[in-house]
Design a protein that fits this description.
The chain is built from seven helices and no strands. It has about 150 residues and is mostly helical. It has a single domain, classed as Cytochrome c/b562 (Four Helix Bundle (Hemerythrin (Met), subunit A)). Helix 3 runs antiparallel to helix 6 and helix 6 runs antiparallel to helix 7. The chain binds heme C. The site of heme C has 25 residues, from helix 2, helix 6 and helix 7.
Length: about 150
């Protein structure tokens, strides 16, 4: 084998080996949990300002409600993707319950229903604050519907 080719292959292995082999199963499972929590943190970063308005801690701004609700509607369908890998066999720092992988289909449906509630909230901004309040209540209920079954209560 020509020397150059050999050294090219060797360096390629050196570069890719850590990516493929470095993480243990435990580390990969913990990383999955952190990705999931990160997604929910982003969701709540859009949810928080709307909650503040509903609680009258922030001035009402229909454009912000609409934009944030649209972002939430985009993010929530990612929940089934990031929870796809069953990590119930691992001892992780997580509030995710094993029941997620016992009824992954129902879990996924709850994510879809919540995304729909977020779209409804975005649409409700066209009908004024009363409609927004009602649609926000429904969105909050849809978060809770999933948490009640699939997130550890604290
Ligand atoms: C389909 C299920 C599902 C839906 C819908 C859902 N969540 Fe969650 N949420 C979870 C699970 C499971 C966890 C626990 C994740 C973990 O700890 O690994 C979680 C965790 C969280 C956390 C804590 C994140 C952290 O670790 O800091 C917040 C905040 C949160 N959710 C807010 C919301 C809000 C707000 C909504 C609605 C707009 C919502 N969730 C909708 C399943 C859901």
């Amino acid at each position: 084998m020509p020397k150059l080719l050999f050294s090219l292959i060797f360096s390629a292995l050196l570069i890719t080996a850590p990516l493929t082999f470095a993480a243990s199963d435990d580390e990969r499972a913990q990383a999955a949990a952190e990705t999931r929590q990160g997604l929910l943190k982003v969701v709540v970063s859009y949810f928080g300002p709307i909650l503040g308005m509903v609680r009258q801690q922030l001035p009402y701004d229909g454009d912000v409600v609409k934009n944030n609700a649209e972002q939430i509607a985009t993010l929530l369908p990612m929940i089934p993707h990031v929870f796809q890998r069953d990590t119930s066999a691992f001892d992780l720092d997580t509030e995710a319950l094993d029941s997620i992988w016992e009824d992954y289909e129902d879990f996924s449906e709850k994510a879809a229903a919540s995304a729909q509630a977020a779209s409804n909230l975005a649409a409700a901004t066209a009908d004024g604050q009363g409609a927004v309040m009602k649609a926000f209540g429904a969105l909050g209920g849809s978060c809770k519907a999933c948490h009640d079954n699939y997130r550890e209560q604290n």
